[in-house]
């Protein structure tokens, strides 16, 4: 496979450029929207907070929204890289191990059984727990029998369990009109309306996930060679697989709890990064962190610039798909990629 | 290993071998499907005993029973079987072409395109009859799949490129769908959600006649491609080596797969699970020779939809819930059981 960036110098340079881009789009995301603010105003909002409307919007809406988008984008991209390595399937996305479907089922069940008396933060825990339980179930099924967790077993059990969880979600939504309207807000991915304490509630788990993924890069490089080779090279594959799955649960489960199911980032960003740096996870993971974050911030910004003026509050997942269609397809076509 | 029986005739010179086990399982599946169909026609808000159902079939039942059996339940069941079989075979073909167990009719945008078109229709069509919905959805699915194919074309279509482009275009169509849902009114949105789940509610003989030509024609066409499907499992190079015109065949098979899925989605909406999982369930039961795999997938797909619809209209009375909710609810546990049962041989 011929990649765009070959030398270490090139890879480092582009990574630094990526970080700069990430910083720029984050600042833009804080300043640009229906109301535009100057950088000075944004700084003032944190140094000399006056309680004015613009300061409030910056601190309680723009900033949390931006931070959420970065954290979720990075997490989904890294989770995608890990799952694609684990299943050796380029179509594997974080939703494959059932985190999205599990979180949605847990939230809808909670609403259906208890009504909508819980604040958002508690709903997030319900989602997180649902995601975790579903993923563990998928992992347990995939590990049953001889040969432990094989890519094909993980892929298939994930698809089956996720489908089952989606059934539960649809059932509650169709049985109770009220549940449907309540839950609809959750079931479309969005970074809007999240508060800073929600972000700080979930972000420790994501941090652990990112660090874990960085530490696992060497093992992942061996993993993709196949179980036998990895074992031969002294890899404890069961341990690596279990750790990788745990990290995916933290990252993807945390993301879906924080922002609902946002599709596409976890499949496309890993591929984009592979186009850039190839199959070495020591580069893939940091690239995914940086570009995944930048991608989701851009998508959110785009949806605000293009769709907000039309008086539409459209979830960020819509914009991710638009960007994807516009930018990723030419890239996929352009590479001589098997 | 399976027990094979080789059949040879002197004149005309003909020889083939039959996998007894796979053929037997197919036969059992077929019997099961027949039982499920008769049961499904008898059960409902009004129970009709089996012999009354059979009497109604031959025209010897009471008027009321004949009305319920022949005009209400039978078309619904027939559509269910056709929809399930079409989706399952469509998925089996795509899994073989893309060589990826995660491939399904959704992958190249057929379902997503049909759904986007249908939801757009629900949103914007003011006083146009609902009758046009299947056609609108079908056209949406066909156009989207064509777009995917053309976009992925670059001196041929590599399976991997097709899959990636398909993911992008499906996501784009999904985004459009959400967009339409957001700008539409709430009561229409719940309509659209029902359709997206997939339902055979209120199917009549008109729907049967709409779907029948597609199902018969394209399932029939698939039979003639079995040899090629088996050959291309070996990979592009070997398939070329034994004399297969890969790109031509691939286009033909994608067209068959899209037509099957498009027609099914057009009539019954976005029934999930069948296209992805029915072929896997079949593979675990009869192995991966397509001569046995395709009929088994078709029967299982049909059976799943019939059962799902039966549960939807009996268990939650007075609700008549979309079959699409229950396809995975029944299919997933069964598949997990198979996965567990066959866990010791890969």
TrEMBL record, chain A:
<feature type="transmembrane region" description="Helical">
    <location>
        <begin position="154"/>
        <end position="175"/>
    </location>
</feature>
<keyword id="KW-0472">Membrane</keyword>
<keyword id="KW-0813">Transport</keyword>
<feature type="transmembrane region" description="Helical">
    <location>
        <begin position="66"/>
        <end position="86"/>
    </location>
</feature>
<dbReference type="InterPro" id="IPR000522">
    <property type="entry name" value="ABC_transptr_permease_BtuC"/>
</dbReference>
<feature type="transmembrane region" description="Helical">
    <location>
        <begin position="202"/>
        <end position="224"/>
    </location>
</feature>
<feature type="transmembrane region" description="Helical">
    <location>
        <begin position="284"/>
        <end position="302"/>
    </location>
</feature>
<keyword id="KW-0812">Transmembrane</keyword>
<dbReference type="GO" id="GO:0005886">
    <property type="term" value="C:plasma membrane"/>
</dbReference>
<feature type="transmembrane region" description="Helical">
    <location>
        <begin position="12"/>
        <end position="34"/>
    </location>
</feature>
<feature type="transmembrane region" description="Helical">
    <location>
        <begin position="245"/>
        <end position="272"/>
    </location>
</feature>
<keyword id="KW-1003">Cell membrane</keyword>
<feature type="transmembrane region" description="Helical">
    <location>
        <begin position="98"/>
        <end position="118"/>
    </location>
</feature>
<feature type="transmembrane region" description="Helical">
    <location>
        <begin position="314"/>
        <end position="332"/>
    </location>
</feature>
<protein>
    <submittedName>
        <fullName>Iron ABC transporter permease</fullName>
    </submittedName>
</protein>
<keyword id="KW-1133">Transmembrane helix</keyword>
<feature type="transmembrane region" description="Helical">
    <location>
        <begin position="124"/>
        <end position="142"/>
    </location>
</feature>
<dbReference type="GO" id="GO:0033214">
    <property type="term" value="P:siderophore-iron import into cell"/>
</dbReference>
<comment type="similarity">
    <text>Belongs to the binding-protein-dependent transport system permease family. FecCD subfamily.</text>
</comment>
<dbReference type="InterPro" id="IPR037294">
    <property type="entry name" value="ABC_BtuC-like"/>
</dbReference>
<dbReference type="Pfam" id="PF01032">
    <property type="entry name" value="FecCD"/>
</dbReference>
<dbReference type="GO" id="GO:0022857">
    <property type="term" value="F:transmembrane transporter activity"/>
</dbReference>
From TrEMBL, chain B:
<comment type="similarity">
    <text>Belongs to the binding-protein-dependent transport system permease family. FecCD subfamily.</text>
</comment>
<dbReference type="InterPro" id="IPR000522">
    <property type="entry name" value="ABC_transptr_permease_BtuC"/>
</dbReference>
<keyword id="KW-0472">Membrane</keyword>
<feature type="transmembrane region" description="Helical">
    <location>
        <begin position="323"/>
        <end position="340"/>
    </location>
</feature>
<feature type="transmembrane region" description="Helical">
    <location>
        <begin position="162"/>
        <end position="183"/>
    </location>
</feature>
<feature type="transmembrane region" description="Helical">
    <location>
        <begin position="203"/>
        <end position="230"/>
    </location>
</feature>
<feature type="transmembrane region" description="Helical">
    <location>
        <begin position="289"/>
        <end position="311"/>
    </location>
</feature>
<keyword id="KW-1133">Transmembrane helix</keyword>
<dbReference type="GO" id="GO:0022857">
    <property type="term" value="F:transmembrane transporter activity"/>
</dbReference>
<keyword id="KW-0813">Transport</keyword>
<dbReference type="GO" id="GO:0005886">
    <property type="term" value="C:plasma membrane"/>
</dbReference>
<feature type="transmembrane region" description="Helical">
    <location>
        <begin position="251"/>
        <end position="277"/>
    </location>
</feature>
<dbReference type="InterPro" id="IPR037294">
    <property type="entry name" value="ABC_BtuC-like"/>
</dbReference>
<dbReference type="Pfam" id="PF01032">
    <property type="entry name" value="FecCD"/>
</dbReference>
<feature type="transmembrane region" description="Helical">
    <location>
        <begin position="107"/>
        <end position="125"/>
    </location>
</feature>
<protein>
    <submittedName>
        <fullName>Iron ABC transporter permease</fullName>
    </submittedName>
</protein>
<keyword id="KW-1003">Cell membrane</keyword>
<feature type="transmembrane region" description="Helical">
    <location>
        <begin position="21"/>
        <end position="43"/>
    </location>
</feature>
<feature type="transmembrane region" description="Helical">
    <location>
        <begin position="131"/>
        <end position="150"/>
    </location>
</feature>
<keyword id="KW-0812">Transmembrane</keyword>
<dbReference type="GO" id="GO:0033214">
    <property type="term" value="P:siderophore-iron import into cell"/>
</dbReference>
């Amino acid at each position: 496979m011929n990649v765009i960036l070959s030398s270490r110098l090139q890879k480092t340079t582009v990574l630094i450029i990526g970080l700069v881009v990430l910083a720029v789009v984050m600042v833009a995301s804080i300043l640009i929207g229906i109301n535009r603010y100057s950088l000075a105003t944004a700084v003032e909002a944190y140094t000399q907070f006056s309680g004015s409307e613009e300061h409030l919007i910056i601190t309680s809406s723009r900033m949390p929204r931006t931070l959420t988008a970065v954290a979720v984008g990075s997490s989904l991209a890294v989770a995608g890289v890990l799952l694609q390595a684990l299943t050796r399937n380029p179509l594997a996305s974080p939703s494959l191990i059932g985190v999205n479907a599990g979180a949605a089922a847990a939230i809808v069940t909670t609403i259906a059984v208890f009504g909508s008396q819980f604040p958002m933060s508690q709903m997030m825990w319900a989602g997180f727990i649902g995601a975790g339980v579903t993923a563990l179930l998928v992992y347990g099924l995939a590990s049953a029998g001889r040969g432990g967790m094989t890519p094909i077993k993980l892929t298939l059990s994930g698809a089956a369990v996720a489908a089952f969880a989606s059934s539960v979600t649809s059932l509650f939504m169709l049985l109770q009109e009220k549940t449907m309207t309540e839950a609809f807000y959750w079931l479309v991915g969005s970074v809007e309306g999240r508060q800073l304490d929600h972000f700080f509630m979930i972000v420790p788990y994501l941090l652990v996930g990112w660090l874990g993924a960085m530490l696992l890069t060497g093992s992942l490089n061996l993993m993709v060679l196949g179980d036998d080779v990895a074992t031969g090279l002294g890899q404890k594959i069961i341990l690596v697989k279990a750790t990788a799955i745990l990290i995916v649960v933290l990252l993807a489960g945390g993301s879906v709890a924080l922002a609902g199911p946002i599709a596409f980032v976890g499949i496309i960003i890993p591929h984009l990064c592979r186009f850039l740096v190839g199959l070495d996870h020591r580069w893939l993971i940091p690239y995914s962190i940086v570009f995944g974050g930048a991608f989701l911030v851009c998508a959110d910004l785009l949806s605000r610039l293009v769709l907000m003026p039309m008086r539409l509050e459209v979830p960020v997942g819509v914009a991710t798909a638009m960007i994807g269609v516009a930018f990723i397809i030419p890239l996929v076509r352009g590479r001589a990629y098997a | 290993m399976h027990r094979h029986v080789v059949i040879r005739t002197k004149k005309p010179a003909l020889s083939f071998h039959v996998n007894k086990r796979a053929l037997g399982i197919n036969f059992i599946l077929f019997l099961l499907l027949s039982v499920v169909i008769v049961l499904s026609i008898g059960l409902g808000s009004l129970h009709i005993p089996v012999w009354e159902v059979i009497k109604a079939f031959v025209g010897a039942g009471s008027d009321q029973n004949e009305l319920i059996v022949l005009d209400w339940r039978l078309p619904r069941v027939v559509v269910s079987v056709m929809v399930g079989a079409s989706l399952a075979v469509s998925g089996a073909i795509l899994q073989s072409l893309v060589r990826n167990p995660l491939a399904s009719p959704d992958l190249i945008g057929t379902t997503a395109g049909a759904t986007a078109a249908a939801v757009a229709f629900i949103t914007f069509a003011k006083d146009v009859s609902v009758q046009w919905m299947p056609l609108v959805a079908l056209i949406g699915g066909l156009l989207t799949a064509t777009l995917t194919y053309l976009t992925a074309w670059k001196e041929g279509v590599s399976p991997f490129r097709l899959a990636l482009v398909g993911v992008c275009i499906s996501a784009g169509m999904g985004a459009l769908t959400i967009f339409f849902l957001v700008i539409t009114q709430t009561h229409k949105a719940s309509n659209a959600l029902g359709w997206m789940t997939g339902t055979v509610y209120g199917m009549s003989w008109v729907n049967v006649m709409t779907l029948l030509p597609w199902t018969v024609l394209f399932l029939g066409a698939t039979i003639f491609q079995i040899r090629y499907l088996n050959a291309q499992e070996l990979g592009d190079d070997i398939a070329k080596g034994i004399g297969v015109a890969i790109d031509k065949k691939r286009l033909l098979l994608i067209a068959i797969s899209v037509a099957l899925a498009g027609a099914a989605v057009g009539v019954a909406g976005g029934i999930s699970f069948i296209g992805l999982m029915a072929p896997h369930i079949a593979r675990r039961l009869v192995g991966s020779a397509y001569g046995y795999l395709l009929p088994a997938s078709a029967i299982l797909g049909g059976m799943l939809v019939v059962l799902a619809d039966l549960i939807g209209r009996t268990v939650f009375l007075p609700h008549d819930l979309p079959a699409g909710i229950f396809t995975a609810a029944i299919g997933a546990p069964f598949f997990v059981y198979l996965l567990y049962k066959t866990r010791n041989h890969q």
